[in-house]
């Protein structure tokens, strides 16, 4: 079918704009979600100690905390945890591996918090 | 025809810009430690920074006033004076004592009683060395538990505990009560969208900036990690959970949790692992969450009698009961696949 009112240039323009639009929407809806960036944020008393991109981590990394007590944080590709702590109840160590956006481990005695942030968080916060 | 092409172009461009421009306003995020726990805030709006700072300052001020874990403060003053007549306290302390009495009245002291402190102390709850006290000690201390023995003289901002040895611990209500103060501070600063988490007690103001409700995860009571069993969607509400898992110890194979039944003096064993209350008043929600002491049937009855709250009860056999008003707002999200959702729990 040929619509004489459209010139070839017009048709090319319309089709290319449509293709770009479809591509963009597709990229926004699926692309970002699938290739989610996971970042671990380590704070002490509300101050940033370290930020680690867990997706790009090639070798395991260990972070020592010495004040006010001794703790070790272990980061591997896609996950992070408190691996050792001298605090009394060791709730931070028992929390285990943090693997997804929104996961968090807290040590109240040392005021150290590991939070994993990224897009696609299923919830805003947790009631416990 | 050029007109149609122009219209098509504009249409495509607007679709394109909608696809790119869906960036939402970013909250001011902050965390701090007080009330023996971690406190988080996500606050939106022009005064977000100022309001967040104000919130932390107020929480720390009230913590110092009400804690029994460090010297000084109004509650220690009241406890030290037990059986010796009135002591003058700060107006804020009188207000929370009045509120605590009201909340205790909801269950006639069966679920919640702020004078349970002598037992909390005897069990070593909140210390690094929890212990099993002798039966006769428990029996003697239970006789001291009665919130009606807190006498308040509003005119002079004074309060008294009638019997020697009686003690008040606001631990079971302070976080909830302060939750309401936090939302008041937000409102005073013109904030319309915020969420604060006070060691598991959540308060939300308004909805999210995009107009959608806040999504609050409900902790899996038997997961050491931060796993949840479900998500509840709320706007302008407090979401408060009482669980048997926050602090517990095991002796001779028996698990003892940190919540003491004010009537028996022993840690609760009610067949419930957690109770979550969703209500407009954070203080009331905190008080009602103590329905965990009463068990499923009596606990649900307490919520029903209160009339302005919704609830999620999780039983020891891993069933989740939800009040009718929550059925379209609660969603099971249980990665462990161990929990069963029972509809029409109320």
CATH fold name of the largest domain in chain A, please?
A: mini-chromosome maintenance (MCM) complex, domain 2
CATH first level of the largest domain in chain A: Mainly Beta
Tell me, briefly, the overall form of chain A.
Answer: elongated
Calculate the mean pLDDT score of chain B and round it.
Answer: 92
Counting DSSP H or I runs of 4 or more residues, the number of helices of chain A is: 2
Number of helical segments of chain B? 9
Largest beta sheet of chain A: what is the strand line-up? Answer: 2-1-7-6
What letter string, H or E per element, gives the SSE order of chain A? Answer: HEEEEEHEEE
Largest sheet of chain A: 4 strands, antiparallel
Q: What assembly state would you assign to the polypeptide chains in this entry?
A: heterodimer
CATH topology type of the largest domain in chain B = T-fold
Order of helices and strands of chain B: HEEHHEHHHEEHEEEEEEEEHHEEEE
CATH homologous superfamily assignment of the largest domain in chain B:
ApbE-like domains
Low-pLDDT windows of residues of chain A: none
- In total, the number of strands of chain A is 8
Beta-strand residue fraction of chain A: 25-35%
The assigned CATH architecture of the largest domain in chain B is: Roll
The name of the CATH superfamily of the largest domain in chain A reads N-utilization substance G protein NusG, insert domain
Distance between the termini of chain A: 64 Å
Which structural category fits the helices and strands of chain B? alpha+beta
Q: What coarse outline of chain B follows from CA principal-axis ratios?
A: globular
What does this structure look like?
The complex is a heterodimer of chains A (128) and B (346). Chain A is of the alpha+beta class and 128 residues long. Chain A has two helices and eight strands, in the order H-E-E-E-E-E-H-E-E-E. In chain B, helix 2 packs antiparallel against helix 7. By secondary structure, chain B is of the alpha+beta class. Chain B is globular. The mean pLDDT of chain B is 92. Chain A binds chain B through residues 5-6, 10, 13-14, 17-18, 20-21, 24-25, 28, 43, 45-46, 88-89, 94-98, 102-106, 108, 111, 113, 122-128, and chain B through 1, 5, 8-9, 12-13, 15-16, 19-20, 22, 30-33, 36-38, 40, 42, 128, 195, 197, 200-202, 204, 208, 214-219, 224-226, 228, 231, 239-241, 243, 246, 276, 333.
């Amino acid at each position: 079918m040929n619509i004489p009112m459209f010139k070839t240039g017009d048709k090319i323009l319309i089709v290319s704009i449509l293709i770009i639009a479809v591509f963009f929407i597709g990229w926004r809806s699926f692309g970002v979600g699938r290739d989610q960036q996971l970042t671990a944020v380590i704070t002490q008393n509300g101050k940033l100690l370290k930020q680690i991109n867990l997706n790009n981590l090639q070798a395991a990394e260990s972070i020592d905390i010495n004040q006010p007590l001794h703790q070790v944080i272990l980061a591997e590709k896609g996950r992070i945890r408190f691996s050792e702590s001298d605090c009394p109840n060791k709730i931070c160590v028992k929390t285990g591996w943090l693997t997804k956006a929104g996961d968090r481990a807290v040590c109240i005695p040392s005021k150290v918090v590991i939070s994993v942030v990224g897009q696609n968080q299923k919830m805003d916060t947790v009631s416990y | 025809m050029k007109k149609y092409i122009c219209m098509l172009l504009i249409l495509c461009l607007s679709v394109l810009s909608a696809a790119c421009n869906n960036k939402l306003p970013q909250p001011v995020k902050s965390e701090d430690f007080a009330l023996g726990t971690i406190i988080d805030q996500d606050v939106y709006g022009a005064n977000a920074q100022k309001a967040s700072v104000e919130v932390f300052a107020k929480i720390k001020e009230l913590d110092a006033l009400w804690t029994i874990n460090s010297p000084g403060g109004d509650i220690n003053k009241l406890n030290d004076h037990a059986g010796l007549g009135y002591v003058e306290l700060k107006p804020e302390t009188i207000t929370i004592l009045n509120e605590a009495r009201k909340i205790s009245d909801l269950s006639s002291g069966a679920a919640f009683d702020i004078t349970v402190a002598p037992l909390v102390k005897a069990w070593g709850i909140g210390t690094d060395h929890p212990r099993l006290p002798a039966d006769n000690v428990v029996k003697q201390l239970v006789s001291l538990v009665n919130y009606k023995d807190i006498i308040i003289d509003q005119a002079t901002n004074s309060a008294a505990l009638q019997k020697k040895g009686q003690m008040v611990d606001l631990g079971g209500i302070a976080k909830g009560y302060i939750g309401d103060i936090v939302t008041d501070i937000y409102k005073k600063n013109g904030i319309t969208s915020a969420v604060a988490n006070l060691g598991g007690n959540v308060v939300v103001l308004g909805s999210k900036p995009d107009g959608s409700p806040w999504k609050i995860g409900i902790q899996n009571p038997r997961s050491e990690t931060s796993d949840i069993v479900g998500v509840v969607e709320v706007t302008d509400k407090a979401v408060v959970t009482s669980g048997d898992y926050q602090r517990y110890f095991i002796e001779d194979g028996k698990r003892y949790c940190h919540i003491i039944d004010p009537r028996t003096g022993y840690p609760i064993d009610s067949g419930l692992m957690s109770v979550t209350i969703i209500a407009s008043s954070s203080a009331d929600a905190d008080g009602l969450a103590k329905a965990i002491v009463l068990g499923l049937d009596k606990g649900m009855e307490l919520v029903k009698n209160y009339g302005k709250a919704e609830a999620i009860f999780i039983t020891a056999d891993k069933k989740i009961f939800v009040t009718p008003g929550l059925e379209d707002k609660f969603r099971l999200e249980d990665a462990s696949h161990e929990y069963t959702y029972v509809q029409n729990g109320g």
